[in-house]
Amino acid sequence: MQGVLVTAFEGPDALAVHELPEPEAQEGQVLVDVEWAGVTFADLLQTRGEYQTRPEPPFVPGWEVSGTVRADAGGLRAGDRVSALPVIGGFSQTVAVDASMVFPLPDNVDTRRGAALPLNYLTAHFALIHRGALRPGEVVLVHGAAGGVGSAVCQMAASYGARVIAVVSTEEKAELARSVGVHEVVAADGFLDEVRSLTDGRGVDLVVDPVGGDRFLDSLRALRKGVGRLLVLGFTGRDIPTVRVNRLLLTNTSVLGVGVAEYWRQDPQAARSQWHEILPLLKSGRLDPPISSVFPLAQASAALRHLDERRALGRTLLNVRA
């Protein structure tokens, strides 16, 4: 089979397509014939050795895939269409995945969209519901709203009855944010003043931040006193901010970490439980990932550079069998 190898921690340019032996499913695993693979920021970090888990080269990257089950296993039948989270190994034509990380697709979701679902939408669900304790009617501010995880958070928050304010840096990204159902869009520069105006000075109940960097302090200032929660999902802006905790004391607000991979490590069945919870939203079409860029497997390096250069809107995919 064909697969992409990271041969050195030198970023996307160190990727190359090779002929590889097909994997064998171990006990508790499902063999998935991959059709599409999602391209994620975690994959990008792994090509540089900068992610929390650091497999040694050579290895096949690829956090999320979609395709069909090859043989009956893990409660699934041969030919079932699935999304899956192999974490590594997804940039290949076949991958063995722990059964707890393989999710059946509803009839109305094709495998192309299926590859864009599990990592971002289960992360959004964990952030909003498990960590943020989102309630209907609350106001949610989402940074990086035109990115993969940001757009997933926007859709899910709106689906759960929140008022969603999207933070974007360009008009093109604003258009994508509007397409996923946000209620208001504000520019990244000067977002705090706009948010205060939109909320009549009260601030927002939740800030969801996968970006970090120099927006962090104004995100704290945007929180509604007494109830505001800031959810930290990651640092696509590269800089990891710090917080003076006296600010939290004075405003009775909270900063919460959102580490979904750690959550899944602690409870291997949690991801499947989450998938079951969001299935009604998938079946209704309320969760529908925006896909803007598709690359063949041979151009995996270009796909990751596209993400690294912040040119991606919504999701970027690899067509593994093109």
Shape: globular
Order of helices and strands: EEEHEEEEHHEHEHEHEHEHEHHEHE
Overall mean pLDDT: 95
CATH homologous superfamily heading of the largest domain = Medium-chain alcohol dehydrogenases, catalytic domain
- Strand residue percentage: 15-25%
**Approximately how much helix is present in the residues?**
25-40%
What structural class do the secondary elements suggest?
Answer: alpha/beta
Rg to the nearest angstrom? 19 Å
> What's the end-to-end separation, in Å?
13 Å
CATH architecture of the largest domain: Alpha-Beta Complex
**How can the largest sheet be summarized?**
7 strands, mixed
Structure, explained:
With 322 residues, the chain is an alpha/beta fold. The protein has 2 domains: 2-117 and 289-319, Medium-chain alcohol dehydrogenases, catalytic domain (Quinone Oxidoreductase, Chain A, domain 1, Alpha-Beta Complex); 123-261, NAD(P)-binding Rossmann-like Domain (Rossmann fold, 3-Layer(aba) Sandwich). The protein contains 11 helices and 15 strands. Strands 3, 4, 5, 6, 7, 14 and 15 form a 7-stranded mixed beta sheet that branches. A hairpin with an 8-residue loop joins strand 1 (2-6) and strand 2. Helix 3 (118-131) crosses helix 4 and helix 3 (118-131) crosses helix 10 (270-284). It is globular.
In short:
The chain is an alpha/beta fold and 322 residues long. 30% of the residues lie in helices and 24% in strands. The chain starts with a strand and ends with a strand.
